[in-house]
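WARN retry 2 of 3 for item q-0093 after timeout on previous attempt; input resubmitted unchanged.
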Amino acid sequence: MLPNRNVELMVIGSPDTGGHVDSAHSGTRPIGKLAKRSGTTGANGCFYTDYSPSHISGFVTIEARSGNRVGRKGVYVGFPNLTQLLDGTNFRIRGQTTAHPSNHWGSAETTASFPRIADAYKNRYYGASPMPENDKLRVNEISLIAGGKFDLAAPSRGIPIPNWHNLNAVHKYHREGNSLDLRCCSSPGQIPRNRFEELERLALANGATDFLHESNPEHFHLSFNNEPNNISNGQLNPIDTHTPHSYIENAWEGALGRFASQNEWEVWHDRLVLAKSQGPSEFLTEVKLLQKYIFAEYPTQRTKEQFISAVFLSHLFREPTEAETQFWLSYYNNLPPVLPLDRKRQRLIDEFQLTQEFVDRVSAIVDGEVMMPPIPTPSPTP
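OK item q-0093 returned
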């Protein structure tokens, strides 16, 4: 190892890994960011940097060049040890797509518990008789082979095919193999509505730690191993907790529908990390400046409603409710008519950044990953 040598690094993505088929997506697969892509080796002959992976699982290669020497190191981004759930005696897997042809990978708790749930359901309603094929439970999705964001199309948001997004509310979870979507209201696999309450009881008694009845489309969302949507009592939800790295990526996506470039990310990551070390007030100020910088690029032809939606997505990583949209439309429409478009938009952003939800979102940004310990899986009951 030689000191004082120039080093250049780059991240190279591997297509069709992590359970994603790249050709069935639009846009460019995110591959993560390097804190520094170039520098000089120190007295010990080493150059140090940090790699922050994206929300998309798969393989990447870190390539380093110094003079005529080239070195490469493969990195696996994802959750290890997920197990594929296959058809069972009393359930069938469904939901495979061209973009995600294998999407029933779960944690040990999920893949062990769900067959028990299906068996308990069969025993409760069919006794010793075999379960008719059309009545067998249908599992739509769990997670991809390496976990990570399970991106889906969202036609209502102008996303006709998956595009590597992270903020779309569809499949907010399904990242660690602890979320399972169960068909309830279409055939095959339709569950009579008078059985819904009993199915929930059986699920919670046989390993699920939460059971949600969701809409659009109507289905059940089962959680295992204390998957985050079961967290309450003021505890931090890992899905909704961010580092400076993930906040920058989501802020850019929410406002502009794209991810930050490497140069943009490096500049603002350094600024946020420094500001965070200086104190909460300095950090909040820097996050506000980040948002101002991003929205300077926001297209002028977008409607007021689209702008308000982008403000919510970029600042809070969620869509506004109808009532919230109407409130901020009223605020916008009451601004002095003589103000130019950019001033009106900035006035709304300035006011929005005074909301407690935004301040709380920023104060919850952490230096590293947040992990919630699992709770014990309940013992099975008939």
